[in-house]
Amino acid sequence: MINIDTLETVKEHAITYSINLLTAVLIFIVGIWLSKFITKTTKKILINRNIEITLVEFLEDLIYWTIRGLVFIAVISKLGVETSSFVAILGAAGLAVGLSLQGSLSNFSGGILIILFKPFKVGDKIEVQGEIGKVEDIHIFSTKLTTGNNQVVYIPNGVLSNGKIKNHSQKSTSRNDFTFNFPINENIKNTRSKLEVLVQNHPLILKDPKPDIFIASIETETFSLLVRAWTQNSDGVAVKSDLLNSLYNL
């Protein structure tokens, strides 16, 4: 025969568990809604403040899964599961994963630094690790470049954030140093004057700053003249080609 006290105890436990279960379900539903609402609101605010879209998407995912993780812990805690040991296990697992992914974490932190401090942006022409190319995408772990011969190069962000980056696009103009060699039997003064006329009349060479011409070297059979001229970033190669062609036809 079942004891009345036992029935009362079972009844109390059933009521308590039912309340906890309903509360857990409510926490889950509200938590899921909050994760979506807070994520969308944060994304909208960041976009309105012109934050880099790569960082916006990363923060969106981070906030979304952080809230869901907290909701999960709150739900299982309400159902009577001991969460302290669970959190300790997660912490230990996170440490183990972190140690095994040190390189990836370096690239991850490098991506954050690039997005925050913006040493370059999508569309810029940069030079890094011996590669020169146009930035196509900035991902959280790597940056995608397209080189002049249409090859795609992925540079780890850890390397980018810790190394030297030359940005060819931050300034609209650049100084070009062109060196031209001539036979030693040609008159240096006359050759310099002819080259000066070509430089001054070239439409792609800027007048300010003023271009300069120097004697770079004098050897046994040749001498060299150095032209320092300012152009738009994209015009340097064309200017050198034009000057070479004009000198050849003199």
Summarize the structure.
With 250 residues, this protein is of the alpha+beta class.
Report on this model:
The protein has three domains: 4-114, Helix Hairpins (Orthogonal Bundle), CATH 1.10.287; 117-167, SH3 type barrels, CATH 2.30.30.60; 173-249, 2-Layer Sandwich (Alpha-Beta Plaits). The strands form two sheets. A five-stranded antiparallel β-sheet has the order 4-3-2-1-5. A three-stranded antiparallel β-sheet has the order 6-8-7, covered by helices on one side. 12% of the residues are buried. The protein has 250 residues and is of the alpha+beta class. Strand 7 and strand 8 (222-232) form a beta hairpin. It is rod-shaped, with a radius of gyration of 33 Å. The protein has seven helices and eight strands; from the N terminus they run H-H-H-H-E-E-E-E-H-E-E-H-E-E-H. Helices cover 55% and strands 22% of the residues. Helix 1 packs antiparallel against helix 2 (53-78). Keywords: Cell membrane, Membrane, Transmembrane, Transmembrane helix. It comes from Flavobacterium columnare. One of its GO terms (cellular component) is plasma membrane. This is Mechanosensitive ion channel protein.
